[in-house]
Amino acid sequence: MSVMNKVRFADYISLVSSYVKYYQNDDGTWTADASVLPGCITWGSSRSEAVIMAKDAIESWIMAALRFGDEIPIIDDCILQDNVDEFLKLPK
User: Fold this and answer.
1) What count of Cα atoms within 13 Å lies in the side-chain half-sphere of residue 14?
2) Chain-centroid distance, C-alpha 47
3) Cα–Cα distance measured from residue 72 to residue 11, given in angstroms and rounded to the nearest whole number
4) How is 7-75 classified by DSSP, letter by letter?
5) CB within 8 A of 43, min separation 6: which ones?
6) Half-sphere exposure of 84 (CA within 13 A, CB side)
7) What are phi and psi of 50, to 5 degrees?
8) What's the pLDDT tens digit per position in 38-64?
């Protein structure tokens, strides 16, 4: 069994981003599919907008998973480090 590397939030975002696939649609818009995070898909009116939207979708997917206790996938033997409390501080 390989050793898991704990990575910071920003590094995990970059890792997931490296797996995003971009497709141009028939109408000229672009789809961004981060399939390593189930259901994490978005689009933009241009490829550059789709890249921005993909980063936002990845961050939102992870935040929702953390908030609701869902499993965060292991990618390339990397896991999100345990110290993510600062991202989960919700207003009271």
Assistant:
1) 5
2) 17
3) 14
4) E-HHHHHHHHHTT-EEEE-TTS-EEEE-TTSTT-EEEESSHHHHHHHHHHHHHHHHHHHHHHTPPPPPB
5) 25, 29, 30, 31, 32, 50, 53
6) 21
7) -65, -35
8) 999 999 999 999 999 999 999 999 999
pTM: 0.86
Q: Where are the domains of the chain?
A: 5-83
The third-level CATH classification (topology) of the domain covering 5-83 is Double Stranded RNA Binding Domain (3.30.160)
pLDDT by residue (tens digit) across 70-85?
Answer: 999 999 999 998 655 5
Cβ(2)–Cβ(77) below 8 Å: yes
